[in-house]
């Protein structure tokens, strides 16, 4: 792996723990002004000091994040359909050159295994890896987003492994209660989990804890942080799980204490 690639990865995966708390704020690229992300700047600004990276589109980056912010950027570079149409019909919408210009530490795109446009999104991933490697730019493959997929270890393991085989440098997927360690074991690159729909803070911290215990290298979490009534308290609690080996119970205590401030 070349120096640029390693350097960019180490900006996202903190070298002292090898793990990461990425803040996902890219939802508007197909969902529009999602609840609590209606005004991205308002949502993002208080969380920036606690995020190991922001995962977002170039539009939100340019308009809603100050260029002096020191937080590493993982740029979503795929898109196409909105929530009103077939989600899997994505193409690459932002070039790697643009990601370099924006000083990104990585690029991210979705693949849709088992969906109508599976092949198109996997070929997109192959092409993106080809282009990104010319620039030493790590590629995050985002798996298992979609409607009625059965998100069990078999399906998630299939999607993550395929992403790694195409050359993704790390993979984001959903957590599943049963056999998540098999998903991680079968994927030769780091796995981070998305949070999914908003659940209670207790449940989200338990999920994060279980994922880390099963070998995940962190989270790329959105709604379970910024849809919380206390988003800063929540990201601090998630950080404790990811970087400080806190149990879910200890992290919940952090959340409760911090949410009273
Ligand atoms: C959607 C995404 C989101 O970033 C991802 O779903 C993570 O956010 P959340 O924790 O809210 O699920 O990539 O395509």
From TrEMBL:
Entry EC number(s): 2.3.1.245
Record flagged with keyword Acyltransferase: yes
Molecular function GO terms recorded: acyltransferase activity; fructose-bisphosphate aldolase activity
Organism domain of life: Archaea
Keywords for this protein: Acyltransferase, Transferase
Gene behind the chain: lsrF
SMART domains to which the protein is assigned, alphabetical: DeoC
Sequence similarity: Belongs to the DeoC/FbaB aldolase family.
Keyword Ion transport among record annotations: no
Protein name per the record: 3-hydroxy-5-phosphonooxypentane-2,4-dione thiolase
């Amino acid at each position: 792996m070349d120096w640029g690639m390693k350097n960019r990865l180490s900006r996202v995966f903190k070298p002292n723990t090898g793990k990461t708390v990425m803040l996902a704020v890219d939802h508007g690229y197909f969902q529009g002004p999602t609840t609590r992300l209606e005004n991205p700047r308002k949502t993002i600004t208080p969380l920036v000091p606690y995020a190991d990276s922001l995962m977002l589109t170039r539009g939100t980056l340019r308009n809603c994040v100050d260029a002096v912010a020191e937080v590493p950027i993982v740029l979503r570079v795929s898109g196409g359909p909105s929530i009103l149409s077939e989600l899997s019909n994505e193409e690459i919408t932002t070039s790697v050159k643009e990601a370099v210009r924006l000083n990104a530490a990585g690029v991210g795109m979705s693949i849709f295994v088992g969906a109508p446009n599976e092949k198109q999104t996997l070929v997109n991933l192959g092409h993106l890896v080809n282009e990104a490697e010319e620039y030493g730019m790590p590629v995050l493959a985002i798996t298992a987003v979609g409607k009625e997929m059965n998100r069990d270890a078999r399906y998630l393991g299939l999607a993550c492994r395929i992403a790694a085989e195409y050359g993704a440098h790390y993979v984001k997927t959903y957590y599943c209660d049963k056999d998540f360690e098999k998903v991680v074991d079968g994927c030769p690159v780091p796995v981070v989990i998305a949070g999914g729909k908003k659940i209670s803070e207790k449940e989200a911290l338990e999920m994060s804890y279980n994922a880390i215990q099963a070998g995940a290298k962190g989270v790329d979490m959105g709604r379970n942080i910024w849809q919380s009534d206390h988003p800063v308290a929540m990201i601090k609690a998630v950080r404790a799980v990811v970087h400080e080996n806190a149990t879910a119970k200890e992290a919940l205590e952090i959340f409760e204490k911090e949410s009273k401030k």
